[in-house]
Amino acid sequence: MAGGKETPRQRMIGILYLVLLGLIALNVPDSLLDAFRNITVSLETSSKNVTTGIDNTYKAFEATKLKEQKERAQPIYDKAKKASAIANDLYNYIESLKQKLTAAGGGFNPEINDVAQRDNLDVSAHLMIDGKNADVLREKIDETRKQLIETLPERDRAGVNFSLNAIDPPKRGDIKKTWQEANFGDGIPLGATLTTLAKLQADTKNAENEVVKKILGEVDQAVVNLDKFNAVAVAPSSYVIAGQPYTAEVFLTASDSKSNPDISVNGNKLATKDGKGTYTVSTGSEGTFTWVGKIHVRQNDGTFKDYTTAPQTYQVARPSAVVSPDKMNVLYIGVPNPLSVSAPGVSKDKIKVSISGGSISGSGGHYTANVSSIGTAKVTVSGDKGTVLGTSEFRVKRIPDPRAMFAGKSGGNTSAANLRAQDRLFAKLDNFEFDAKFNVTRFTMILIKPRQDAIILSTTGGELSGAMKSALAGITPGSTLVFKEVVAVGPDGTQRGLDGMVIQAN
């Protein structure tokens, strides 16, 4: 089309070509818009869940600290409420912008479960850029972030890491965009703008949650950093006569593994490790024994306070068999479950161990149980003459489902460079005591680059296919990477459908 004098027909063809290019540029695929809507719904659900968590935090504080230490707790409670009000002002302003954009986009269409004109490329720029609403929003985000941080004590401010911010993106070549242009400028579909606003609302709620918990935590007087949690069952006595009820309290305990407070039992100081004292006493005679523990803890004002346990009772009786799981009180299908078996007064080489609903092997007090079906399994310990010394019943469960992991993430944000360096999708278990490995057998990957069609690829196995690697090689900041339809197989041989995940490249 360039060079020389064009005929009228050539000029018409050139004009039609430019029009076609414009139409192609305006064609936003439904799959991409559906992905934006799915992310929006997920973000809105997350905001609701965090709001519920904040409400529950307030209720727990009101029911305990505010009643027990009202004089000290009331100012702290009021400060937390002020932080919530600051965050809610921003949240509600963002909600008003969503409503304006939805109205300008033809309202909500229940048939597509989205705004009617979700592929409109003009509404966002008109209302947010031309109408200066993006400028106001950025100012409100910066001010909200500043005010929330200022509600915290000086010592806590440095550790704040809010995702709530409005920072200009990095320069790309010769193009430098503001935060407003990058998020709401020309060429951005209305559906994507609503997703951005939903993310800002989620960031606002997460910031509020972090600040409220830090503020309300100030009421705890003891200089203790609770970093270890355990489920504990406490019974007044471990010895019960047949026909009498057995009673125990089950609750969650927390301890400070980095401190070593003064702990004593019946006036005798105990050695401490990881914030815990261990009480050991000889049991040379039968009978019932009681002891009381005391913990001496320094307070914020430098004074000390004593915390005393309820009286603890234990029974010393004749020898009996004891079966203890080396990991936990559950047996899992597909992995070897180590058990320790002992019978005081009986030689270990005279002990015989059997299990229902599985198999058991080992000797010398150390055994390994393998189970195959969900339910219960009973371990029976017998002496050399076949006398049953004791039985223990265990719950049998299948191994929990793992989480899909990519680039060390199960969702959230990471750098585009980190994503480009990956070649495999993993399935990992969190906080599971056993060495149980899962292998990904198939999954689908969706790559959504800014203002481009979504790339949807599927493969078998955990390794990225060649097409996936090629697609990831071109990932840029602002892209969205989605993994779904993830299936993994664990040591028990069952296929597990795993939750999908969304990762944002930055």
Automatic annotation (TrEMBL):
Domain Gliding motility-associated protein GldM N-terminal positions: 33-217
Domain Gliding motility-associated protein GldM first immunoglobulin-like residues, every copy: 221-317
Domain spans labelled Gliding motility-associated protein GldM second immunoglobulin-like: 320-397
InterPro entries, per database record: GldM_Ig-like-1, GldM_Ig-like-2, Motility-assoc_prot_GldM, Motility-assoc_prot_GldM_C, Motility-assoc_prot_GldM_N
Sequence ranges assigned to domain Gliding motility-associated protein GldM C-terminal in this UniProt record: 400-505
NCBIfam families: GldM_gliding
Name of the molecule in the record: Gliding motility protein GldM
Source species of the chain: Mucilaginibacter conchicola
Gene: gldM
